[in-house]
Amino acid sequence: MLCLAARAIADERGVAIPHGTVELLSEQESIQPGHAIHLGLHFRLEKGWHIYWINPGDSGEPPRLEWHLPAGLRAGALEWPAPSRLPILPLMDYGYEGEVLLPVPIENTADLAPGEEAALSADLTAIVCREVCIPAKANLSLSLPVRVDRPGESAETQAMFRAARKALPKPAPANWRPSAKDLGDSFELRVNTGHSVSEAWFAPLDPLEIENAAPQKSVSTAAGVRLILKKSDQLLKPVSRLRGVLVLPQGAYLINAPVAPAPAKRPQQGAVR
Amino acid sequence: MRRGFAYVVTLVLMALSTAALAARVGEPAPNFTAIDSNGKAHTLAAYHGKFVVLEWHNQGCPYTQKHYNSGNMERLQKEWTQKGVVWLTVISSAPGTQGYVTAEQENDYLRRMNAAPTAALLDPTGDLGHLYSAKTTPHMFIISPDGVLIYDGAIDDKPTPDPADIATSRNYVSQALREAMSGKPVSTPTSRSYGCSVKYAH
Lengths: 273, 202
Known about the structure:
The complex is a heterodimer.
Chain A: H1 2-11, E1 15-17, E2 20-26, E3 37-45, E4 50-57, E5 64-68, E6 73-75, E7 84-88, E8 91-97, E9 99-108, E10 117-129, E11 133-145, H2 155-167, E12 170-171, E13 179-182, E14 186-191, E15 201-204, E16 217-220, E17 225-230, E18 241-248, E19 251-260
Chain B: H1 2-18, E1 33-36, E2 41-43, E3 52-56, H2 62-69, H3 72-82, E4 86-91, H4 103-113, E5 119-122, H5 127-131, E6 136-137, E7 140-143, E8 149-153, H6 172-181, E9 196-197
Parallel strand pairs in B: 3-4, 4-5
Antiparallel strand pairs in B: 1-2, 1-5, 3-7, 6-9, 7-8
């Protein structure tokens, strides 16, 4: 009961959307003229409901923001933590259940006078889904005092932003040398992590490259990992690079792998399926 | 009774052939027979010589509602069927899931919306949906008069449930039909279909 009451109070701070709340948060307590800040889009959803990653997979769509900022403030792109796989058999979506914070950097060349309040707001459009989907729209706003001194980090949100950054995929180390091969009906993605990998899966950034719902065969090798990704039936042209997120037990990594073209002689099709 | 038996046989045959077939742009579209909301059977092969549009549908889905409540889908159905296109709306929602309708409910909906597909095919088993790997509602397919799949994807390039986006969107179905009818290759033959997941039986 206590827990529910506390949750209800916390929820009052966010804006209600179907089956959850959303709130615009700031990592900093104030805004300093000439210095960038970080805002974040914080979703809390009821159990079983989800929103989507930048590539939503087979259905759904990612949340979008239309910013209303004082002149001289400019919002960058949303930063996307590694998604979860959301199987909706026979489909596969990519997104977030429960709670997620999507950070967004705000450039600041604004002519802000100390003592003023900077009014920051954004119109959100999103879709919240379980088996069914409900569109969500919300106007989110936040006001930050303008101060000449370096802003303190808001103790309350600091931990949340720290956790969100930890969940962002990291650039893959250069010596991992990710590479891919076109095998005709599938891609083989190789990543030399330098150690054997017990489990791995790949979320593509671009739609229509791989069959999202097809099982990904992961083979641990001495040098790292090899993944077999079934091509999408809708992929009609060769792909020169595979871009996406490789999710490993120790964390998620950004992958941008050159694709070696299929051998000129395609393997006999239809013999084995 | 006889029709019921034929339907079951067709579905069994269709299920057997599914493993060997897939709907891929540039390849022959898999044949099917399915029953519409008036009890009439439609076989793809019988429409040889005509363009056929398949439109996956779920009247409870906000993305479908975007195109129906705005009148966009009904307008497209009228425009293209008047030009000789066979437009088949397909409902693959399983019983008990969102968008499942009886024949009577579907006919009532078609009347209420003033919709004008050639027919609304009822696919509660999801066999036709699986045959074409229909993922979302809407999800659009176009089959050329010689039976080749020439489009597989979204209805347009604005993946939102907001009807206000229709006016500024590029409609991939109309574009593909216009191009194919004037003998040109389809410039966007596949796209990521957007919408709600098709509510298949689990």
